[in-house]
Design brief:
This protein has 277 residues and is of the alpha/beta class. 37% of the residues lie in helices and 21% in strands.
């Protein structure tokens, strides 16, 4: 496996490759990331996993400095899986000058995560665009755990006519249902036992909808109140249409529950797709 830190070197290395898959990450690789690499390896002969902690997507007071950086361990895991290239530029390589050009995302980026993390998706869209320009892949793999991000990246590639297929990957979970995340390591033992409650709450919403309940606002309120009773600081638990993440009509058949809440000092997000027959 090659480790490349310069864009010029990466482009030279990939110039003769017929099909390249890009897996963008911020490092601290876990089984969720590795599942994306596996999908990439099934679809392309060359997989480039990028590792870059992007300052632009962290807001004031967020954990940019505390974000776990485990590069050597990351490389060991990726090499064992057969990943071809790790592209890990430093900030000077990605932002040689202060970034004054940004990708301005659509209105959906100001809702949900965007409401609580202003500017987050502008930073995501900008760095993903730069990574795409550096790697110039034919496809890229993103996990469904960051559901809103996946939707925005899909629209970005469509709106900008980028010749990149966006492949989605199912969320990888622990045995108790908790979505794998780099931030899970910050949970105390007691908080870790409590953490699956968000998923359980979403499953309750799913069961109610499949049983015919369409009182979405009431379900959202009850879900948030339930988590709050167990010590969660809830940002949102909402039901949306999968396409466009808009408020659903009663006859909507493809729904998704999206949630974000803080347990102790750790903010967790999750989602659950619901397909109504």
């Amino acid at each position: 496996m090659q480790v490349i830190r310069k864009i010029s070197e990466l482009r030279a290395r990939l110039s003769s490759e017929s099909r390249v898959c890009c897996v963008p990450t911020m490092g601290n690789i876990h089984d969720g990331h590795l599942s994306l690499v596996r999908i990439g390896k099934e679809r392309a002969p060359t997989v480039v996993t990028t590792i870059f902690v992007n300052r632009l997507q962290f807001g004031q007071g967020e954990d940019f400095e505390q974000y776990p950086r485990t590069f050597e361990d990351d490389c060991e895991k990726l090499e064992a899986l057969g990943n071809d290239i790790v592209f890990c530029p430093n900030e000077e390589e990605m932002y040689p000058e202060p970034q004054v050009f940004f990708i301005d995302p659509p209105k959906v980026a100001k809702r949900l995560e965007g409401r609580f993390r202003p500017g987050h998706f502008r930073g995501v869209c900008t760095v993903v665009s730069k990574l795409f320009n550096a790697v110039q892949p034919q496809l890229a793999v993103f996990g469904k755990k960051d559901y809103q991000q996946l939707a925005i990246i899909r629209e970005l590639t469509e709106q900008l006519c980028l010749p990149i297929e966006i492949v989605s990957a199912e969320t990888v979970r622990a045995e108790d249902g908790l979505a794998l995340s780099s931030r899970n390591r910050f949970l105390s033992d007691e908080e870790r036992k409590e953490a699956p409650r968000m998923r359980d709450t979403m499953n309750g919403i799913r069961s109610a909808i499949l049983d015919g309940d369409r009182k979405y606002v009431a379900m959202e309120y009850a879900a948030g109140a339930r988590l709050a009773r167990y010590g969660w600081n809830v940002d949102y638990v909402v039901i949306r249409a999968q396409k466009g993440l808009r408020r659903p009509t009663e006859d909507e058949t493809k729904l998704v529950v999206l949630g974000a809440a803080t347990l102790g000092s750790t903010r967790l997000i999750d989602n659950l797709e619901i397909n109504v027959d």
